[in-house]
# Entry
Amino acid sequence: MDLLLSLTVNGLATGMLIFLLAAGLTLIFGLMDVLNFAHGGLFAWGAYSGVWVYDLTGNFFVAIIGAIVTGLLLGLLTEYLIIRPVYGNHVQQILITLGFMIVLSEMLKVVFGPDQKAAQPPAFMDGSFMVGDVILIKYRLFIILVGALVYAITFYILRKTKIGLIVRAGVMDKEMVQSLGINIRLVFMLVFMVGSALAALGGVLLAPYSGVIYAEMGMEFAILAFIVVVIGGMGSFTGSLFAAILVGLAQSFMAYYYSDLSLAVNMLLMVSVLVFRPQGLFTGKG
# Structure
């Protein structure tokens, strides 16, 4: 029982990290219909910039803010320079964002160096709790809390605020929203920036979790994010949360019992969903 609880907490933490990456992808693809294969690069830049700020200041929360600002700025540049010219053309979006993903990875080596970087959790989050005979790692509980907060805040904004109403209306009928005097281009750019910031947040939280970061990590985790988006349902924010937790738990248990099959089980989950429920486990955007 103790082992099951430990693996479950580990799986939830992994799932929340994947959710933060997939949530941004869901926002960008589900609400804007943009296939952004450079999303993993924004994740990696969040990790590197966060670790750099943490080394500079020694303050983990300033590091998180630094990573989020990096994600916002890179999201602004990516939307304006890379995505805007190819709106409405999925083939061009795939090609140009895949190329930009490589550029982002290589730029990490130029700016921060080609070697892997070590990352440790802040002192106050290091260590663990004992609940009975179960060891609960503090930092993993922190990740689960952050993921739950991000889901609650984003869901509330999308469903309960005027901003969320404008975004959802813009997805359904851009021309109608534009005719009401709302700059829908600006709204979509802000959505893209928020999605990029979520990816960067996931990156900076992953760094102390894994203990090491490297330039190619973006592509590796982007694959998991796309698996989550497919399983959860294209554009379903709640579906992404559910699928990310499912993938995180599957990966955690398989890594313990059959480590060689930890990625394969997620691929199997995705294929099963595509065969029996191609629209994903959840439907409906937002």
Summary: The two ends are 37 Å apart (CA to CA). The mean pLDDT is 86. Residues 11 and 205 are 15 Å apart (CA to CA).
